[in-house]
Amino acid sequence: MNPPKKVVLAYSGGLDTSIILKWLQTEYRAEVVTFTADLGQGEEVGPARRKAELLGIRPENIFIEDLREEFVTDYVFPMFRANTVYEGQYLLGTSIARPLIAKRQIEIARAVGADAVCHGATGKGNDQVRFELGYYALEPDISVIAPWREWEFASREQLLRFAEEHQIPIAKDKRGEAPFSIDANLLHSSSEGKVLEDPAVEAPEYVHQRTISPEDAPDTASIISIGFEHGDPVAIDGERLSPAELLTRLNQLGHDNGIGRLDLVENRFVGMKSRGVYETPGGTILLAAHRGIESITLDAGSMHLKDALMPRYAGLIYNGFWFSPEREMLQALIDRSQEHVTGTVRMKLYKGNATVIGRESPLALYDQDLVTFEEAPAPIASAMRQASSS
User: Fold this and answer.
1) Residue 325 CA to chain centroid, in angstroms?
2) What is the C-alpha to C-alpha distance for residues 298 and 83, in angstroms, rounded to an integer?
3) Choice among 98, 210, 275, 327 that is catalytic
4) Which entry of 74, 156, 181, 335 is annotated as an active-site residue?
């Protein structure tokens, strides 16, 4: 790879990406453009601008964008139309965020004339694959820099020494080993590593970021209704909300009722197993509600086909193939199935559980007169006798 002249860096403003920023400047002598995405991670992104300026980045080369609505509208909701879970449990909160970040990096690279992009994913995880497949799908000739696979730093102590040498501020709690790593966005939070590496040991309560424990949840259930149009949620208790607002509201309801915790050992795309603690409060409610409205609006063949294809669709997202023709073909099929998935679902939220307790739709395929155990109305009874005799 020819040495890059201008690099767009996915920049969080944290210590690791600040070290990467300075490393790009010193190792490649490249002009660095920073891109910070607000995906609802729950942390203020404003300090990233000040940190980038402190490290010598010109104001016109600092991009900070609120992508919450785009994230939910164009990535989260399409995924939930398929009732997507990976390996039967994981709601793909980290996986679904990476293609949007990669897309914006490429768009910014085109806008500023950059010849390279850079991410901060480690060499052992899935994110390096997700980012790079996204980059190459959208811009096949782009150069990709992956510092964790390239630099010579062999320990955290060396990274901290580099930071001190280049006057990169180090928070006191960063001088020691972090007890676990966290990734978060509007859909979920994930915690991995360190105190969580032994899958036989229960995760400490302090690991959980987005939910109270089910034991501490209220003794009275919360009853809510979720309105759907064409497979997407549009309202809670009759109040129409934007996609990001709706997911934020569901997150709070899930938090308050201890809903959405998952302790999972998963198979990474890179060939190893990893243990993670995930919290997807709003998504867990939404998944149950969406299946509830589909149960009365989808015919059996469509529903069973969707369920059969879902693991493949989930694997494509997990492995980073969001922009692949295969995923787009599956999405077209899934979206076609949602044309009549419209109506309202009532949910009971109680101590870690999200339970469907009612569903109704003007397009329902459910016919109470037909399925009743009581005496059927005369026209139906006659039709049934004719069908049984033919």
Assistant:
1) 21
2) 13
3) 98
4) 181
Report H helices in 219-299: 243-256, 281-297
- Of the three residues 160, 179, 198, the one that is the final residue of a domain is 179
Residue 127 known to be catalytic = yes
Q: State pLDDT tens for residues 39-48.
A: 999 888 889 9
| Cβ neighbours of 206 (radius 10 Å) | 10
Instruction: Name the domain count of the chain.
Output: 2
Task: Decide: pTM greater than 0.90.
Answer: yes
306 plus 164 within the same structural domain: no
Helices (H) and strands (E) in the chain, counts: 14, 14
Whether 261 sits among the annotated catalytic residues: the reply is no
pLDDT one-digit tens code per residue, 309-343: 999 999 999 999 999 999 999 999 999 999 999 99
Catalytic residue among 16, 115, 256, 263: 16
Is 263 among the domain residues?
yes
CATH at residue 100: 3.40.50.620
**Pairing between β-strand 116-118 and β-strand 6-10 as defined by DSSP bridges:** parallel
Same domain, 205 and 323: yes
Domain annotation covers residue 336: yes
Is 181 tagged catalytic?
yes
User: Does the annotation mark 216 as catalytic?
Assistant: no
- Spell out where the chain has E strands: 6-10, 31-38, 62-66, 116-118, 143-145, 181-184, 189-192, 222-229, 232-236, 239-240, 261-267, 273-279, 343-350, 353-360
Q: Which pLDDT belongs to residue 178?
A: 62
One-letter amino acid of 55: L
The distance between the two most distant Cα atoms of the chain, rounded to a whole number of Å, is 89
- Looking at residue 291, which CATH number applies to its domain? 3.90.1260.10
Domain membership of residue 224 as a residue range: 185-368
- Active-site annotation holder among 38, 127, 183, 232: 127
